[in-house]
Amino acid sequence: MTSTFATTLFDPDSTSCPAVARHLDFVDYEAEVPVHTHRKGQLIIALYGAVICRAENDIWIVPPHCAVWIPGGIPHSAKATWNAHLNYLFIEPGAAALPEKCCTLAISPLINALVDRLTHERVDYPPESHAARLTRVTLDELATMPQQKLSLPVSGNPKIRTMADALVSHPADRSTFKEWAKRLALSERSLARLMLRETGLTFGRWRQQLHLIIALQELASGVTVQNVAAKLGYESVNAFITMFRKTMGSTPAHYFSERKTGARQGDTP
């Protein structure tokens, strides 16, 4: 591991092309990218491993073959697993019909293939070049990708932030809602109202979403289901798998197997 930050790799605002793509293997860079911003919006696609982004008082998870979209001008940071292989697509404001807020997108094999192809193109391609035509198709397709709920609202409120930071650092902490209210010097009713107002979720739903995000990151980096369940404080592996299946629609094994199958199909001519 070097001490080089990934942000030194390329300045996306150095070109006015509608979109430019770059490939990044985090084995060559520091795993944590500090807070930064740029004019172009940024799509981060995880090909392998996973990355967690922080932006707009939310935490966003990018598991394999998904992407997080960060509109231009929004300060953000990222932390990748040691084995993360990512494709970045930097998009000029107004060049694509994409959301104005950060979100996680499902990414089709076609989008994966197109962005990967564009990583081999020069950043100052001519407007009527083959690269420009590929870019237009990519942006048109990208605008049709559905959003996924893979974010954790953490809020700028100091009490919610304190709780969030503590549970992100120690996700196995099974303190009850009553215990957290006492720890934050609030009544249970006040904390419940504050959680709903600041995050839109109850404490139970919020902690479950936190566990899901950490689980996706850990599983993508190669940690076993048994070890992930233990890290999150579940009494049994089955209890963890049940939570995962209820929120993601499949078991951890099937979830990652489906994404690997989709990636292979996308590589097939």
TrEMBL record:
SUPFAM superfamilies: Homeodomain-like, RmlC-like cupins. CDD domains: cupin_NimR-like_N. PROSITE patterns: HTH_ARAC_FAMILY_2. SMART domains: HTH_ARAC. One of its GO terms (molecular function) is DNA-binding transcription factor activity. Residues 161-258 form the HTH araC/xylS-type domain. It holds the Pfam family HTH_18. Keywords: DNA-binding, Repressor, Transcription, Transcription regulation. PANTHER family: HTH-TYPE TRANSCRIPTIONAL REGULATOR NIMR. This is AraC-type DNA-binding protein.
